[in-house]
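[SOLVED] Need 3D model of a three-part complex

Original post:
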Amino acid sequence: MKLDITHVTTYRYGAPVTDSVNELRLAPRTDERQACYQHRLIIEPNASLMSYEDYFGNRVHAFTANHPHSELVITSQSTVVTRDSEMKRQPETEPAEAWARLRSEPFRDANAEYLLPTPFATFHPVVAGYAEGADWGAGQRGVFDFVQRASGRIFDDFEYKPLSTAVHTTADEMIGIGAGVCQDFAHLLLAICRMRGVPARYVSGYHFVGDLQGRNADFEQASHAWVEAYVPGMGWIGFDPTNNGLVDWRYVKLAHGRDYLDIVPVKGVYRGTGEQTLTVKVDVQLAG
Amino acid sequence: MLDRIAESLFWIGRYTERAENHARLIDVYYHLREDEQGPDGQVWRRIVGAIGDLAAYEAKYAEYGERDVIHFLTLDATQANSLVVCVGQARDNLRKIRDRLPSELWNLLNGFYLWLKGCDTAEVLGDSPHQFYRRIKEGLAAFQGTAVSIALRDDAYAMMESGRYLERSENIVRLLQSVLRHTAETGNTSYAYLMAVLKSVGGYEAFRRLGIEELSTEEVASFLLAQEQFPRSVHYALAGFSDYLKTLRSGAIRSGSGIDRIVRIVDKARSELSWLERSDMNAQALDAVLLQLLVTNRQLGESMAKVFFSPGREVTA
Amino acid sequence: MMELWNAITSLSPPASKFYDEMFEGTQVRTHYEKVQAILARLSIEERATRQRQMNRRLMEEGITFTLSQPGQTEALERTIPFDLVPRIIPGAEWETIERGVSQRVRALNAFLQDVYHEQHIFQDGLIPRRMVLGNRYFRGEMMRLSVPGGAYVTASGIDLIRDEKGGYFVLEDNLRSPSGFSYIFKSRSIMTHDFPEMYFSHAIRGIDRTLDAFRSSLRGMARTGKSDPLIALLTPGSFNSAYFEHAFLAQQMGIELVEGRDLVCEDHKIYMRGSRGKRKIDVLYRRIDDDFLDPLAFRPDSMLGVAGLMNAYRFGNIAIANAPGTGVADDKAIYTFVPDMIRYYLNETPILSNVPTYLMSRPEEREYVLQRLDEMVVKETSLSGGYGMLIGPSSTERERAAFAQKIAADPDNYIAQPTIKLSTAPVCQDGRLVSRHIDLRVFALMNGKQVHVLPGGLTRVAMKEGSLVVNSSQGGGCKDTWVLA
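Solution:
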């Protein structure tokens, strides 16, 4: 499917600010499941962009706006062609062998970054307790089933509730709250996978729901986060614990990293008033 | 030069100058009391009035006495204008930017501060207070002399000196105000008192050398306001301040127009001083002139902050 | 004269299990003979007076560090106690140290270059990849980033101790922003001015060239054709405990001393903004930790750094010394691999040995340590997590049991070393000579290819009898360190 995405981030300041330094991770990635046809960024006030590929292979754009300005508008437009991840359903490696592979030293070394805890995807005792509190089927079942069940379990146990958590909420805090947004669901699934030795990474992107009945295409839905876990024999597979599903053509991937901190879509530092308002508008449409 | 460095340099100049003025004043007033009539407390009250803050003193002590006053003005670390605080402020500012001035200057000022901080009031009064205040003057003179002798004549130096001269101008105006208050309170001004005032700024001999016959309040005021050759006159101080600002302007890009404005204010004040007629120097007129000069000084201090030391705050979004 | 001789001979005989720098039994070592003769000419009072004079000068020159203590409004300014008896290293002995430190720094630098590029050392199985990737000082931002001149560790400090036979061992590498340079220069200045008859009776290798070497190392990193690149030292500010050192280095090298708030990033270049307009900084010698360097890239709450610095660095518009991410190489677990690095990268035999160190992630070493925890010092590494340190000889049965559990639960997080040995040297206290433990921090400057080692270094002294803690924050003192020419 071909999707057109417009993502507008607007900062308004109480008084003119200066020396604004910013980094964006808003360019869709290209991989086996999606191809980014075009992407462009418009910055107001006008600024020259420099770009680089970060440690995780994400495309990063950086710019500065030094002169006094009371509004900063970042518009990101892209066209992306996606497809269902055909599940490369060459069946996953036989369970015992798959788990053994995950436990092997060379494998753990090669995937170290996606196996270690992070401040968000913490191995806090509360998280460890939650992970051990149920039979996830590890052992008899395969790795794919394990991740899928974990994802489903999180979907069942937690309420999706906008504004119930903040941008800095960690996995253990979310368990305490009992509810969260996609970012929190993803962090918890990351922690559970990693504690069991399954490499897992945080993914940011968009979820197209505009054509579905009874859903409105607001920001909370369109701007999304999920998890990719490594399944021996299949490779990196996308799981969405917020919607209890697998990643399909409706998902557009922007970036991945160890947790949210690695992929913050828009971040900046400036000099001036703390008085600022942020508005984000995301529009995803089927290209005509 | 960076904003915060400019600011520190400016305050080093101001605080070392302020400390010197205070030490000179305390020394002279202290020895003046032998001549004074009336209850002892009056003398001490006048000293506090001339240098410190009467209200702050009275909040702390029930009456005016030698030991308390000397402590209050000299070694009281909680008192905004005491000597040890002025020297400490100069030293803290130098500590922040000590790479910008020769290290000899830092060693001098820091050693001096540590000595002063270690003194106690009993020591000051026990030995000879005169000896003590002379040591203070000498310590500060060593600092300034070394700066004159070895400091690079760059923006840093000009900034420090501009602080010094602005402070001097303000201190002399305040000194003259206290003379006027004294005259108003006592009805007349004794010869010894006026001589002491001149001596406190090291200007008695200069005053005599210029052949001024009468030692009157008017003549002394005129000398301290408008004498162009005496380095501790308001006129001279403002001229010095203006010169250093012009040095700062010669290479500045950002704040050229701001500096121009400051220079205009100083030069206007200076030219008004040159026009002062001795006949105008009655108490009332003098009072008005001094008030106006205080306003000008304050204005200059604020403009310096605005032009040179503007701060910025960082926010993460 | 006799009184003094008594003072020296009544010096508690160095415990036989430690090496003494000045005495061999009751004999004075040859290279300390003049020191002994000169000290012998002074009375106890004279020595005490001299010592006080030296420490007063340190105070007056503000060679202090600040200790802020809870409940105290004003931070305490302390000097590091300075000892008038120099530490002397014979020329031949120094030659070994110099070559050994130089070799070590070259290997560590090569390791960093490899970790942040090709990662051959992981592929060849010498070091487990996760030990580096999981290290809290590893910076993904540094991957594939080209570093000017290939110099990651422009300035480093290698801590050496001596065993009972006098052999030198490396205790620790400091590759982030080691401090102590300024004390070396001030110590030397104090000895020459306040104890000239001692100083001038020896032929000692000078240290002044080191500041030149330092400046030229920094200058060489500038990625610009400018004949006069702008070099700045980035300090956390005058409240930092090492501020004196920052001001000293900036002044002595003639470079700018700046704080984060003085800097601004414009189009991925870093400028300092002053009354004469803005000037682009070409080389930044930073004395703040990676975490605080750039609020955009690292800790967003940092007020000490400058936003956009990492991107300026990435795009080649500024050089940073030391490079971000050098902390992975001075981690306690990585330390054990340095001799292997020397063989691997340089194809040389290590000149200086490590203190024997056991990695708890290796089953047989773990077993060995767990059986003799009461003789061991167990330390946490810089991997995420980790809970403290165990000093075996002074621990209780219960503490050891608890620690054994922690080790078993998370072996990657721990290393163990036998209780270390530090040599002793005479120290003057109230005019009398007493024996105290010392170590040596050797400073090296590198420009990517060559390493300059400062002749001597900082001898740190544990001022309490029997103590092995030489850190200045815990009351440690220092000595001027002389390399005989």
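Edit: Residues 1-151 of chain B form one domain.
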